[in-house]
Amino acid sequence: MQDNQPLLLTDEQMREFITNGCLLLKTDFSRAFHQNLLEQLNTVYAEEGNPGNNLLPRIRELQKVFDHPVVTGALTSVLGPNYMMHAHRHGHYNASATAGGWHKDSYWGYNRMRNHHPNWAMIMYFPQDTPVELGPTGIMPGTQNYETRTFKSNDQEGEVLASGEAGTFALIHYDIWHRSTPNVLGQPRYMLKFEFMRTEMPQHPSWNNQERAWRKPANLQLPIAEHEIMWEETWNWLSGEIGSLAGKAASDPEQIKALAGKLSGFEPIAINASYDLARRGQQGVDALLEGLYSGDANVSRISTYGLSVSGTEAVDGLIAALNHENVEIVTHAVFALGELRGLAAKAVPALINLLNHPADLIRCAVVDALGFMDTPLDDIVSGLVRCLQDENAQVRFMASLSLSRFGASAEAAVPQLEIALDDENRYVRAHAVESLHYIGTERAKNTLIKYLLNSRWCPTTTKVNTFYP
């Protein structure tokens, strides 16, 4: 490493991430660095157990990993500058000869609809040489946009194994399906999992972009389906375009009817139909709105993804849906409006009114969506400040995260964030800290410094090493 400038991803690497949902990369730390890291992990796990969220302060050298140009460059490319490291992190220890189950990770602290756009990402870092026999994490490429498991539980075709020398890490879309694989060597295998969140919406490409137009990558690892329209829309979104699909295809009534009929089918096919309808003007939007109101929750959810990229033509219909009695339909409409961001600015008053809704799920969705809006900013910040006092911890937690996206413009939230530092929920406290950091005004900084001094951690103080050396 010659300097600490982020090593940004190339166009081809970004194309792979958009389609496959994962990239395998490697840092260039010395063998001695990783040996020292491994020895510390062995000691901590043996004497204290899994440090969980305290993994980073407990093992100080680990911060060097997340300051490495390959790591910062990968995260900046996918999540933009000023991304946030989430307060939840975990050291996974695998000594089992039995494979784990396929799963998607939950969003620690709250429930939310999953994004197709990369607003969240994970890094799975391997501090030791991890051959296939040691049980690396298995990743099913291309599944980041599927809520359902579209493959059999024992299906290994197409599986990507995060195998390699010490310093190898998997950068993954947060929502991808993955599992642990069998460790047949019986030796300790660590995987250090850290989550990251976007705090700035894309205005232009944040990777080393040389080609403006989308095309598929050479290394397309898809065991299930291709999603050309969705991939191109994601590429455009990452380049700063919102609603880029609107009006890009003809509004042929027969085609629209045929596509609408596919919204209830196999999820990959239904997703393709939803994105295709998003291109077909008002008639396509109307078909998606009909799907939004479906009694089938999966049809409603999949239709929502199409509505979320349909542009201004979807806004009025989505605002009307906010008054529906079905909680899931309202939640889906809120999600789509948030994804449309400034194109849906006129929905903000109605969204703020929903902060009084009795359903926790709706209030959670609203605080998430408001974090993507920017006007009228004073009203948005005021609404989120009220949510810091909500009875539901998930609402309070998401309000802290959303406020972090507004920087100094959220100065009015500082007094309530100070109170949130004593919240009973660890993630509300943690992300109140993050919000104060991103707000960055003098009062926010002073509050933050005082809190961090009062809660400072000594990584060498343990039950077997109380005072010395």
Topology:
Layout: H1 11-20, E1 22-26, H2 31-47, H3 55-58, H4 62-66, H5 69-79, E2 84-94, E3 120-125, E4 137-139, E5 160-161, E6 168-173, E7 178-180, E8 189-197, H6 228-238, H7 253-261, H8 267-277, H9 281-292, H10 297-307, H11 315-321, H12 327-340, H13 348-353, H14 360-370, H15 377-387, H16 393-403, H17 414-420, H18 426-439, H19 442-454
Helix pairs in contact: 7-9, 8-10, 9-10, 10-12, 11-12, 12-14, 14-16, 15-16, 16-18, 17-18, 18-19
Q: Helix segment count?
A: 19
Query: What quaternary form is this?
Result: single chain
Distance between the termini: 32 Å
Q: What is the helix content?
A: 40-55%
Structural class: alpha+beta
Question: Can you give the mean pLDDT?
Answer: 94
| Shape, per Cα inertia axes | globular
Q: How are helices and strands ordered from N to C?
A: HEHHHHEEEEEEEHHHHHHHHHHHHHH
Query: How many beta strands in the DSSP annotation?
Result: 8
**Beta-strand level of the residues, as a percent range?**
5-15%
Low confidence ranges: none
Largest sheet: 5 strands, antiparallel
Question: Any idea what the radius of gyration is?
Answer: 23 Å
Instruction: Please state how the strands of the largest beta sheet are arranged side by side.
Output: 1-6-3-8-2
Concise account of the structure shown:
42% of the residues lie in helices and 10% in strands. The chain is of the alpha+beta class and 469 residues long.
Structure characteristics:
alpha+beta; 5-stranded antiparallel β-sheet; 19 helices; single chain; 3-stranded antiparallel β-sheet; 8 strands; 469 residues
Give a description of the structure.
The chain has 469 residues and is of the alpha+beta class. Helices cover 42% and strands 10% of the residues. It contains 19 helices and 8 strands. It has helices spanning 11-20, 31-47, 55-58, 62-66, 69-79, 228-238, 253-261, 267-277, 281-292, 297-307, 315-321, 327-340, 348-353, 360-370, 377-387, 393-403, 414-420, 426-439, 442-454, and strands at 22-26, 84-94, 120-125, 137-139, 160-161, 168-173, 178-180, 189-197. The strands form 2 sheets. The chain has a 5-stranded antiparallel sheet with strand order 1-6-3-8-2. The protein has a 3-stranded antiparallel sheet with strand order 5-4-7, with no helix packed on it. Helix 17 (414-420) runs antiparallel to helix 18. The longest helix is centred in the first third of the chain and has 17 residues, at 31-47. It starts with 10 loop residues before the first helix and ends in a 15-residue tail after the last helix. The model has no long low-confidence stretch (mean pLDDT 94).
